[in-house]
Amino acid sequence: MKVVPVRRDVKLNLNESRIKDWHEGGAHVTHFFNALSVFFPAGERMFMDGVRNYKDQVKNPELKKAVAAFIGQEALHSREHEEYNEMMDRAGLPATKLDKGLWKLLAVIQKGLGKKLTLAGTIALEHYTAILANAVLSDKRVLGDNSDISYKQMWTWHAYEETEHKAVAYDVWNEVMPDNLQNRFVRRLAMVIATAIFWPLVMYFHLRMVLADPNTKGKHITGFMTVNRMLWGDMGVLRKPIGEFFDYFKADFHPWMHDNSDYLANIDSFVEEVNKLERTPNEAVKKAVRARLSKSATVAAASVA
Fold first, then answer.
1. Is 123's pLDDT higher than 70?
2. Cα atoms found within 13 Å of the Cα of residue 66, Cβ hemisphere only
3. N or C: which end of the chain has fewer CB within 10 A?
4. pLDDT value of position 300
5. Rounded CA separation 32/207 (Å)
6. Burial class (CB in 10 A: 0-12, 13-18, 19+), 92
7. Distance between CA atoms of residues 137 and 139, nearest Å
8. CATH code of the domain in which 283 resides
9. What is the DSSP string of 231-285?
10. pLDDT digits 0-9 by tens, 21-54
11. How many domains would you assign to the chain?
């Protein structure tokens, strides 16, 4: 393996007071990233399940280690985004409502598609997260020089680790699935399905966030134009990696054919920098997240019984 990921217990302790305007680009850009955050608790669980379903078939010792680290990283990402999303709820944004709907949708999708297509969907969406992570790491303008540092660090940490483990699920697929025309078709089909579901949901979640924030009233034209410039203009968060996206459909594709591992040389010093700041934990948010997750677990257990 080119890179074996490492589980790092990073606690970001975000600045709750800036939840609706943390990005220097304004509220509409802020809510684009906020909308992405809503996807991670349910999405990361699907990724973990997709890989965990096949981990007993993995024989390569190094890949076994990488799978354990992948699951650990995704679990910690989910924990931090749960707190991020709770702050949105407390600010009057519909994070939990959207999150609940997403959990239900992904449960139906996983049940309908089965284990094989769930893993295929995981490697497809991991390709998207790798593309977005590279945009964050390669261009400081994406997060902004003057944006709130806690949110910048949140997305930078996530980008580092998404880059670090971007090939793990794919390597699991390559190890457990025979390389034949049928499996190549399934892998490509999963990307088409993932694209058809993911981006309309992103746009919908973004719109819901924007419309729930009264501070965006009367600013929608300029606000959405700013987001459009970030995605398709000079920064080109989505425009620049179009070729990289289509490389996924090549028979010999592998995530590390786009080698940006040089960024990972900075990850340990970055984590040290975050830890040195020692931001005060938001105990009210942590308590609310624990209560909500406990309630969800109780409801789930009751439904099974």
1. yes
2. 23
3. C
4. 60
5. 9
6. exposed
7. 6
8. 1.10.620
9. HHSSS-TTTTTHHHHHHTTSTT--GGGS--GGGGGGHHHHHHHHHHH-PPP-HHH
10. 999 999 999 999 999 999 999 999 999 999 999 9
11. 1
210 inside domain: yes
Closest Cα to residue 82, out of 100, 67, 66?
Answer: 100
Query: What tokens were used for 230?
Result: 């970030």
Q: Which domain holds residue 55?
A: 16-293
In a domain, residue 62? The reply is yes
* CA atoms 224, 137, 187, 63: torsion sign: negative
- Dihedral sign of CA atoms 128, 130, 133, 138 in order: negative
Helix (H) or strand (E) holding 208: helix 181-212
Cβ atoms of residues 67 and 51 within 8 Å? yes
Query: Which residue carries 């919908």 as its tokens?
Result: 204
Instruction: Tell me, yes or no, whether 11 lies in a domain.
Output: no
What does the alpha-carbon distance between residue 169 and residue 112 come to, in Å, rounded to a whole number? 20
Which residue shows structure tokens 């580092």?
Answer: 160
Beta strands in 10-168 (DSSP E): none
